[in-house]
Amino acid sequence: MSEAASTHVALAKSTRNSATTSSTVDGALLPSLAPLLHEWLPRQRWFAGKGRPVTGFALVSATEMLPLDGTAGPGLLHLLVRAQQPSPSTRPGDDCYQILIGVRSSLPTTLAAALIGRVERGPLAGRTVYDALHDPRLADLLLERFRRPGTLGSLRFERTAAIPAGLAPRVLDAEQSNSSLVYGDAYILKIFRRVFPGTNPDLELPLALAREGCERVPAPIAWFEAPGPEPLTLGVLQPFLHGARDGWQLALTALTAGRDFVPEARALGRATAEVHTALAAALPTPALHGTQ
Fold first, then answer.
1. Domain CATH number, residue 208
2. How many domains does the chain fold into?
């Protein structure tokens, strides 16, 4: 059986068992991972608590997306954890982070840069854990989950259109506060690393624009979240605009070439006006009494 086929078989088993929590994902899991996360998490560019010590972790949720027993290749564990840190009065509370952890008996050299560490005790003792987004096999699993919307453990997957298979994933390294995967130059999946209660604007606003028929911003194809009274938006899949450049880059290119930028500036202004008009219609702001 090929790696892709075995992943999909494991995914099917995981989906059938999604109503229950794996015995591996229990109270012993986070304490066994905490020493590794204590070293690894502050080094990540998207970690917001730099300069303050991490004093502990609190588990928000853990979902076994692929079996962790090693019988069907790498396992995949989705974690939401709170990093406990001394907080200044201007930033009360502990930040909640989303971590997708790959689990293998040993790590191939191609994934060496994604290493988190080797677990010394607990349910994953003797196994190697790593940042799963850098593993093409596990990144493909995420896209497969969107093709099969529904609930898996503490996660809910939604989509608005069919998603083709066979799109090779790759990680983008440009972002500072999130992580992104590009699938075959067709889609981009933004994974929110630090998550907050409520719908993320990167999902809410494009959905609102799509409802108004505005095509200036790519409409979300799929997304996933942690349900609750205030759901946590965890990731959004959108069409990937290959070769797209922002207005500042366009202006610099025109100036460098000694070319008139007025037509492009006018087009950018028109596009901006269309977006704001659509947003005003989709998300109107009621006037306060006595104001105009």
1. 3.30.200
2. 3
